[in-house]
Amino acid sequence: MITCPNCKSKDLGKIGTTQYYCWNCFIELSIEQNIISVHQVEEDGSLSSLNDLFEEDQRRMG
Ligand SMILES: [Zn+2]
């Protein structure tokens, strides 16, 4: 079960094989080797990384 590292919500929608979208705080999560990468979707559709806001422990699954 994946939990949003930002808001701790479990209300995540799957948008790709390893990609999820948090419906609570509107960020995109992608999972690689059990580490969650966090991105914000900008108005123009591009992604900016929010990984710097989290410790690696917070982004680790399980
Ligand atoms: Zn969230």
UniProtKB/TrEMBL annotation:
Q: What is this protein called?
A: Zn-ribbon containing protein
Which species does this protein come from?
Answer: Bacillus lumedeiriae
